[in-house]
């Protein structure tokens, strides 16, 4: 990953780096890897995320149909 610093503007470069890291999912990955997660906990978390994604898709579909 490469960030170009233009006109010695380090703050802008840092903002761009953070945005790239967030888009790549690095922060989420770090948070998940901080502590060991049991396989059953991982399955439950992934299942809950799938349910929430499905509910969100249903809400969007319902809004579109109105």
TrEMBL record:
Q: Tell me the GO molecular function terms.
A: structural constituent of ribosome
Q: Does the keyword Ribonucleoprotein apply?
A: yes
Residue ranges, annotated region (Disordered): 37-66
Q: Name one Pfam family in it.
A: Ribosomal_S21
Q: Which GO terms describe its cellular component?
A: ribonucleoprotein complex; ribosome
What superkingdom does the record give?
A: Bacteria
InterPro entries from the UniProt entry:
Ribosomal_bS21, Ribosomal_bS21_CS, Ribosomal_bS21_sf
One GO BP on record is: translation
Report biased composition (Basic and acidic residues) as residue ranges: 37-46
Query: Would the keyword rRNA processing turn up in this protein's UniProt record?
Result: no
The record's Gene3D superfamilies line, in alphabetical order, gives: Ribosomal protein S8
| Keywords assigned | Ribonucleoprotein, Ribosomal protein
Under HAMAP family, the record lists: Ribosomal_bS21
Family of the protein in this entry: Belongs to the bacterial ribosomal protein bS21 family.
Name this polypeptide is given: Small ribosomal subunit protein bS21
Give the species.
Sphingomonas abaci
Gene behind the chain: rpsU
